[in-house]
Inverse folding.
């Protein structure tokens, strides 16, 4: 996967059987991990179409599904280990 602005390969990538996980930096990685490990994701009681354009609204469905949580978290942990190396 290439960065859309600089067209350079992203270093934090991990393939899973469902698709590719990637993150720009440690902060992005932490944000993804917090979202994926949350067992309850509450939404606003009113409909706001602009919310769909946010970071989490654009995530692939397979990342959001509870049945894939363990595999996604393992992938994110592997990318975190790359940072420590």
């Amino acid at each position: 996967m290439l960065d859309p602005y600089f067209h350079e390969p992203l270093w934090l990538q991990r393939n899973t059987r469902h698709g590719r996980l990637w993150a720009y930096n440690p902060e992005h990685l932490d944000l993804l991990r917090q979202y994926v490990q949350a067992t309850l994701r509450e939404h606003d009681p009113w409909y706001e179409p602009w919310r769909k354009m946010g970071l989490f609204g654009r995530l692939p469905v397979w990342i959001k599904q509870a049945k894939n949580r363990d595999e996604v978290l393992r992938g994110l942990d592997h990318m975190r280990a790359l940072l420590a190396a």
The chain has a mean pLDDT of 86. The beta strands are 12-15, 20-23.
